[in-house]
């Protein structure tokens, strides 16, 4: 079976409303179609690479290609999991968790997107909380970091709500122009103090060597 050779397909992170996991092929196609319907309004660009402004068909293909690429490149010292977020069994977005040299640094970063029609319901906060539970409770991370453009108020609100502390600013590029970024850091202690979303993890233990997290088991 696929899971015997690539056990990350068995990871399940569940919260009261959501399930985060890797998708089956037809679920990935449904996720791509969700991206075709839009991810943000025209006045916002939350990504350094403006893939979300591609024509709908190209946008859908990009979602699928990124998913396959991150799986193909997964190795213990550099990995990313594009976990699809399911609500009532249907994909509503992506919550990515990634790390370099996790066995040494014990640090994760994250990116995410949520289908436009599912925004404004607290799903973004809940799916980030699920990712943090996977990082800290599951993998034994020491800290999580996040970066958001200053005008991406929804993302910055999620970070602050979940206990991230501001950790300086940096200069990025958005749509070919200078865009200031707010950097955040969340320690294990701050995560424990601010966690309010109940979460469970299933199928992680066989994946620990693949993610450089054996010592955290």
From TrEMBL:
One of its GO terms (molecular function) is protein N-terminal-serine acetyltransferase activity. SUPFAM superfamilies: Acyl-CoA N-acyltransferases (Nat). GO terms for cellular component: cytoplasm. It comes from the Bacteria. Keywords: Transferase. PROSITE patterns: GNAT. InterPro entries: Acyl_CoA_acyltransferase (IPR016181), GNAT_dom (IPR000182), Ribosomal_N-acetyltransferase (IPR051908). Residues 18-185 form the N-acetyltransferase domain. PANTHER family: RIBOSOMAL-PROTEIN-SERINE ACETYLTRANSFERASE. This is RimJ/RimL family protein N-acetyltransferase.
């Amino acid at each position: 079976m696929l899971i015997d050779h690539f056990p990350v397909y068995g990871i399940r992170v569940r919260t009261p409303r959501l399930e985060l996991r890797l998708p089956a092929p037809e679920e990935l196609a449904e996720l791509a179609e969700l991206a075709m319907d839009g991810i943000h309004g025209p006045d916002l660009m939350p990504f350094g690479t403006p893939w979300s402004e591609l024509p709908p068909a190209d946008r859908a293909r990009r979602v699928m290609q990124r998913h396959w690429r991150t799986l193909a490149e997964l190795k213990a010292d550099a990995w990313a999991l594009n976990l699809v977020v399911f609500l009532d069994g249907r994909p509503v977005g992506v919550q990515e968790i990634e790390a370099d040299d996790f066995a040494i640094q014990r640090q994760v970063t994250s990116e995410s997107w949520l289908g436009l029609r599912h925004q404004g319901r607290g799903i973004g906060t809940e799916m980030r909380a699920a990712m943090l539970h996977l990082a800290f409770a599951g993998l034994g991370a020491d800290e999580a970091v996040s970066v958001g453009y200053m005008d991406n108020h929804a993302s910055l609100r999620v970070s602050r709500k979940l206990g991230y502390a501001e950790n300086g600013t940096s200069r990025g590029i958005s749509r070919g122009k200078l865009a200031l970024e707010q950097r955040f850091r969340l320690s294990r202690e701050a995560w424990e103090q601010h966690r309010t979303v109940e979460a469970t993890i299933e199928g992680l233990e066989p994946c620990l060597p693949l993610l450089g997290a054996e010592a955290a088991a």
